[in-house]
Structure formats: C-alpha cells, structure tokens
Amino acid sequence: MNETNCIFCKIVAGEIPSQLVAESEHTIAFNDLFPRKPVHVLVVPKNHYDNVAELAFENPAGLVDLVQLGAKVAEQLTDGAYRLTFNTGLAAGQTIFHAHGHVTSTKPKGEDE
Ligand code: 5GP
Ligand code: ZN
Fold first, then answer.
1. How far is the CA of 102 from the centre of ligand 1 (A)?
2. 4 lines ligand 1 (CB under 6 A)
3. Cα gap 111→113, rounded to integer Å
4. To which H or E segment does residue 44 belong?
5. Catalytic one of 26, 48, 100, 102
6. Low pLDDT (below 70) residues in the chain
7. Residue 83 pLDDT
8. Where are the domains of the chain?
9. Left if phi > 0, otherwise alpha if psi is -120 to 50, otherwise beta: which for 74?
C-alpha cells in the first residue's frame, strides 16, 4: 500500500531524501529530521499503516520486524538504554499518520558520562 501525499511513503520510495540508518525486509530506519535527543531514529514500516495499532492488527509480523530493527539500531547507536515510543492521534503528538516508532536515547554509544 502506498498513500499519496504521505511523507513516509515518499521516503520509503526514495522520493524524499533521508539519512538511512538500517533496513530490514519490512522496515526502514532513518534519522529524525528534527532530533529531540542525541539519538533520534524513526523505525517505519515500508507499507502504509495509519498508526502502530493498525500495524499490529493488520500485520503483526511487520510490527515484530519493526521492533527488532529498532533494537538493532539501539544496539548500534546507544549504550543499551533507549526508548521506543509510538504517538497515536493528533492530541498525543502524532503528526505523521504513517506508523512509526521513535528510538530515542540521551546516551549515544561510547560517549563519556
Ligand atoms: P510524530 O510526531 O508523528 O510522532 O513523529 C513524526 C516525526 O517525523 C517527528 O519527530 C518529525 O521531526 C519527523 N519528521 C517530519 N518530517 C520529516 C521528514 O521529512 N524527514 C524526516 N527524517 N523526519 C521527519
Ligand atoms: Zn505512508
């Protein structure tokens, strides 16, 4: 599925540039354009789902794939402590209605205290 005028569908299709961090069969990971933490990577299903719950119900294996890629990114980029968060709904801060998790951390790998 590919929704017209969806920014993340366009990033998946390569029509909008992004800083790719990692990729798996069903998911891509790229840097957030406006990072709010020293590590801020988005993990995004290649197919379009409006939010993480829709992904969970319609493609559970896709959600597992997304969480696994998030863990690999965190393993690469953090000291092992990170958040994987999903905003759902405008009032909760969701601004892009293509499911995505935020991998965020205040502790990039190898950085001193
Ligand atoms: P949300 O607010 O929907 O949970 O998260 C959307 C995220 O996408 C935000 O953190 C925002 O900074 C990021 N974002 C918005 N537009 C772009 C873009 O064109 N490229 C990238 N890499 N990130 C974007
Ligand atoms: Zn989309």
1. 9
2. no
3. 7
4. strand 39-45
5. 100
6. 1-2, 112-113
7. 98
8. 3-105
9. alpha
What was the pLDDT predicted at 113?
58
Question: What integer pLDDT is reported at residue 10 of this predicted model?
Answer: 97
Q: Which residues surround ligand 2, an ion (CB under 5 A)?
A: 3, 6, 8-9, 48, 98
- Whether the CB-CB separation of 27 and 66 falls below 8 Å is answered with yes
Four-residue CA torsion sign, 36, 105, 77, 53:
negative
C-beta neighbour count of 35 within 10 angstroms: 12
105 three-state secondary structure: strand
| Pocket lining: 6 vs ligand 1, CB cutoff 6 Å | no
- pLDDT at residue 3, rounded to an integer: 83
> Is the CB of 7 within 6 Å of ligand 1?
yes
Q: pTM of the full predicted structure?
A: 0.96
Superfamily, domain 3-105: HIT-like (3.30.428.10)
Give the residue whose CA is nearest to atom 15 of ligand 1: 33
The answer to whether 45 touches 62, Cβ cutoff 8 Å, is yes
